[in-house]
Amino acid sequence: MRLVLGLPETSSVALFDLDGVLTDTAVVHQKAWKEAFDAFLAERDPAYAPFTAQDYLDYVDGRPRADGVAAFLASRHIEVDDATRDAIGEGKNARFLATLESDGVQPYPGSVRYLEAAQQAGLRIAVVTSSKNGEAVLKAADLTRFVEVRVDGLDIVRRGLAGKPAPDSYLLGAELMGVGPDAAVVFEDAISGVRAGAAGEFGFVVGVDRVGGDQAEKLSAAGASVVVSDLDELIDA
């Protein structure tokens, strides 16, 4: 398995983040967040500084929806009540779902090749995502056939788990797969998710750089064991 998949010999379970790792929906999320935040900011100040791609990476990417809203608003020194925070998040999700319905979802071809290789090698597969739309995205991308266990934003809320960068969701994924963290590999494109993998002391953490620039360095600094630009780089690595 190690020779085929580029993983330690002790690896028996793969825990994949979804948006940005398996599917191209991270771009859709970023666009929906920008529209939601910019609409909120414009109401407060016509001369507002818009939400940026870097804001998405620094404060929102990989986090549960409410945590992302709170982190971004804190970066702008803006305090709001819970109702306003939830309204921003709900507005973002409505935009995301509208795009999902109109445009669909595409899995990354390299990720599909890796999933096929992993399945053939006997590596067990789970998805761990902060998104509450995990089931819909997996179905739309035709990836459900690979996934044995799914942990998503609905599970995080229902179980009262701390979101990424806390390791709780990944630890739950490993538990549901019946293994300890040392036998599981985390696959993440978000800095918060890589930090979660490192904090949970997982056996291996794969950082996926879909951004370029200094993102690979940041993923490594956050705790990634290896960084790739696409998952199929690990095949026969």
Give the secondary structure arrangement, pairings included:
Blueprint: H1 2-5, E1 13-16, H2 25-44, H3 53-60, H4 65-75, H5 82-103, H6 109-121, E2 124-128, H7 134-140, E3 149-151, H8 153-159, H9 168-176, E4 184-188, H10 191-199, E5 204-208, H11 215-222, E6 226-228
Parallel strand pairs: 1-2, 1-4, 2-3, 4-5, 5-6
Helix pairs in contact: 2-5, 3-4, 4-5
Low-confidence stretches: none
Going by CATH, what is the homologous superfamily of the largest domain? HAD superfamily/HAD-like
Q: Total number of helical segments?
A: 11
Strand content: 5-15%
Helix content: 40-55%
CATH architecture of the largest domain: 3-Layer(aba) Sandwich
> How does the major sheet shape up?
6 strands, parallel
Question: Over all CA atoms, what is the radius of gyration?
Answer: 17 Å
Strand arrangement in the largest pleated sheet: 3-2-1-4-5-6
Number of strands: 6
Number of individual domains? 2
The global form is globular
Helix/strand/pairing class, anyone? alpha/beta
SSE string, helix = H, strand = E? HEHHHHHEHEHHEHEHE
User: What's the end-to-end separation, in Å?
Assistant: 11 Å
Average pLDDT score: 93
